[in-house]
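Students often ask why inverse folding is considered easier than folding. One informal answer: many sequences map to the same fold, so there is more than one right answer. In these notes we will look at a single instance of the problem. The structure comes first.
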């Protein structure tokens, strides 16, 4: 095989193991989140809400690395479930404010079992987990718009 074609070998990619591991992790989350009646994207959205209680849509989009149009329908579903309220900012009607409800706060008590359950599975040592998470965030913060 020509040297330049080695770049095309699956084992030499960073994208493939990242994709495959993400899929495995998400599949592991599914039964745990099903008990909460949440999708993974709804779950991470709720994590931001539990942390901040009130957030504007732009900040939520940035925190989740999502596009605003992806978040719109997701927020409507969370509102229908009673976990968030959605309103326009009185100072700037173009700005959407999302607020955690009492039901959303109650869900946090049940959801805390999800990371506890996964942490008990010991996929990585604590040091490996910290290193892996640090590297992932470094990649997330990189400039991908080149």
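Output (designed amino acids):
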């Amino acid at each position: 095989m020509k040297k330049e074609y080695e770049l095309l070998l699956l084992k030499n990619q960073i994208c493939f193991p990242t994709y495959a591991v993400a899929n495995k992790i998400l599949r592991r989350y599914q039964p745990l989140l099903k008990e909460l009646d949440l999708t993974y994207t709804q779950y991470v959205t709720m994590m931001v809400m539990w942390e901040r209680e009130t957030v504007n849509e732009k900040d939520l989009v940035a925190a989740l690395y999502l596009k605003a149009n992806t978040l719109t329908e997701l927020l409507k579903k969370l509102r229908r479930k009673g976990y968030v309220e959605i309103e326009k900012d009185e100072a700037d009607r173009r700005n959407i404010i999302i607020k955690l409800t009492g039901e959303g706060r109650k869900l946090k008590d049940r959801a805390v079992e999800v990371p506890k359950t996964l942490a008990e599975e010991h996929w990585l040592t604590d040091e490996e987990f910290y290193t892996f998470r640090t590297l992932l965030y470094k990649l997330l913060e990189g400039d991908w718009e080149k």
